[in-house]
Design a protein that fits this description.
The chain is α+β, with helices and mostly antiparallel strands and 318 residues long. It is 19% helix and 17% strand. It has eight helices and twelve strands.
Length: 318
C-alpha cells in the first residue's frame, strides 16, 4: 500500500489525561498501526502547532435534534482533500488508494488496526456488509446510488466490489471514473457511512443475519414499528452521516473524534473517542478538546443572547 507522505518521525504516542484510569488498552493499542497524521489543511495555508489537552467546547443551536457545528467538526470521509480544495487527495479513514491507468479500477487500503469507538476492529467485513447487504439490497436501497455508477452517470453500470485481502478492497467500473476521489472526500459531506458500516452492531437488525425471527420481531416492536418492518428497524438503527448529532446516535459505534454520549431535552453531550485514529506530529492522539456541550434553544434570539452572555465558545448561527 502507498505510504503516507510527509509523515514525521514519531517515537511514541500520548493520550488525553481524561482517559487515564478508564480501564482502556494503552493508546498504542487503540490507534491503528499507522495512525493518520492530521493534514486537513495544506501546510502553506496554516502554521500548525502542537495543542494542549482538555476543556469543554460549548455550542448552541436553534435546530431541533441537530447541531450543524458539531456535524462539521465530525466530518470524516474515506479520503481527504486538504482544505476541501480538490487539488490533491490523501488518505483519511483509508490509508490510501491507487487507480488504474484507464481509471476504471480503484484499489483502496484500510489502516491496519483501525477501531470503532466501542473498541471493535474495523475489517473488510464492514465494507462488504455496507456494499453487498445494504447498497445491493433492494429493500434497503431501492435505487442504486448514481455516484457509484460508472462515470457517475445516471445510467452507468453499478460498481463491482471486490475484497482483495484483509486490508484491501477494489471498486471496478466499466467506464473511466476520474471523479471518484472527489466523491469520496468532498462531495455532499458524504463521510464514510455509505461504504463503511459497523457490521458487528448492525447485523442484529438485518433479516439476512438475524435468523431468530422472534428476536428480530421483538426488536422491531421495541423500536415502535409494525410486525415485519425490519427495513424500518434497520434504517432507524443505522446512523448515517446526517444523523450523527441526533439523539438516536447515542451508543452507535463511530469513527468520529467526538461521539454523542447523552441527549437531554436541552443539552447534548459529546466526549472524545478513545479509539480515534488521528495524531498530531508529536504523537498526541487527537482531538485536543475532551468534550462538547451542545445547547438546543427555541429560536435565534436565544442563540444571540447566550452568545452575548458568554455561555457559548463557538457559534456560526447569527
Amino acid at each position: 500500500a502507498p505510504a503516507e507522505t510527509g509523515t514525521p518521525e514519531i517515537t511514541g504516542y500520548k493520550q488525553s489525561p481524561m482517559l487515564d484510569g478508564k480501564d482502556l488498552p494503552p493508546v498504542e493499542e487503540r490507534l491503528p498501526k499507522e495512525p493518520k497524521i492530521y493534514n486537513e489543511m495544506p501546510e502553506d495555508m496554516l502554521d500548525f502547532e502542537v495543542g494542549t489537552y482538555g476543556g469543554t467546547l460549548r455550542t448552541v443551536t436553534a435546530v431541533i435534534n441537530w447541531d450543524a457545528d458539531v456535524y462539521v467538526m465530525n466530518v470524516e470521509p474515506l479520503l481527504n482533500s486538504p482544505a476541501y480544495l480538490g487539488k490533491e487527495f490523501t488518505g483519511n479513514i483509508l490509508k490510501g488508494y491507487e487507480v488504474s491507468e484507464d481509471q476504471k479500477e480503484y484499489t483502496f487500503y484500510l489502516r491496519e488496526g483501525l477501531k470503532w469507538s466501542d473498541g471493535q476492529p474495523v475489517t473488510m467485513e464492514d465494507f462488504k456488509f455496507a456494499f453487498e447487504d445494504v447498497i445491493m439490497n433492494e429493500e434497503l436501497t431501492p435505487i442504486f446510488p448514481q455516484w457509484l455508477r460508472s462515470a457517475g452517470k445516471p445510467n452507468g453500470t453499478p460498481a463491482k466490489f471486490e475484497v482483495v485481502d484483509d486490508w484491501t478492497f477494489k471498486l471496478v467500473f466499466d467506464e473511466p471514473y476520474g471523479g471518484l476521489p472527489i466523491r469520496l472526500s468532498i462531495q455532499g459531506w458524504r463521510g464514510y457511512t455509505d461504504l463503511l458500516k459497523p457490521a458487528h452492531y448492525l447485523k442484529q437488525f438485518h433479516k439476512k443475519y438475524n435468523t431468530d425471527e422472534a428476536d428480530l420481531e421483538a426488536k422491531i416492536k421495541e423500536a415502535g414499528f409494525q410486525p415485519g418492518e425490519w427495513v424500518n428497524l434497520f434504517n432507524y438503527k443505522d446512523i448515517v452521516a446526517a444523523e450523527k448529532t441526533t439523539k438516536d446516535a447515542v451508543g452507535f459505534p463511530m469513527l468520529y473524534p467526538w461521539v454523542i454520549t447523552k441527549a437531554g431535552e436541552t443539552i447534548y453531550e459529546y466526549e472524545r473517542n478513545p479509539y480515534y485514529f488521528k495524531v498530531d506530529k508529536a504523537g498526541n492522539q487527537l482531538p485536543y478538546i475532551d468534550k462538547i456541550e451542545s445547547t438546543l434553544v427555541q429560536d435565534m434570539e436565544m442563540v444571540t443572547m447566550k452568545t452575548l452572555t458568554g455561555e457559548v465558545d463557538f457559534v456560526r448561527e447569527s
